[in-house]
Amino acid sequence: MAKTARKKASKKDLILQKAAIMFREKGFAATSMRDLAESVGIEAASLYNHIRSKNEILEAICFDVANRFNTNMELLESNSDGTIKKVESLLRFHIQQMIENYEEVFVSDREWKHLDEPYLSNFQNQRRTYRKKFASILEDGIRKNEIRNIDAPTAVLIMLHAVSGIESWHRSKTKISGKELEENMVMIMIDGLRKQG
Fold first, then answer.
1. Where are the alpha helices (DSSP H) in 79-177?
2. What is the reported pTM?
């Protein structure tokens, strides 16, 4: 069977990848289009053949990440798994995204405040809605007596902050594998939610 050739990343994709790295390292505000052009290996003027502005790059990164998370949430909401299984699936997805697409996820989580309107309000609304959906899965588990009687919105914030802490794993010189990290985090967080006895 013939192998299908991998699609070569377009210049725009390369710009987005390099921008995500720079926005994470230097911050959105401190990264110039000139810096970005240099990291891509093209003239600053040529950059505008592929992208209109630095804000357009941030929009593309943030909304690509949001779409991935929202699509996963919709798939999860429509399946018939039990609450604990749903929460575990959500956590695994978050952890894997933070490991495999670190730069983009980090930027969408930390730099979204630099989005221009109407993108800023849209993105804030999507974040809020996502957290509410996550909390409603926990609330369903509390009603079904599968999850301890906790404040669901607080539990969601704690879990999401724990996952964003994977940033320090990326910086660590001696670290466990991504798979071990995922298993450890899921075990700790799921065991903390599960109703005992």
1. 83-100, 102-110, 119-143, 152-164, 166-171
2. 0.88
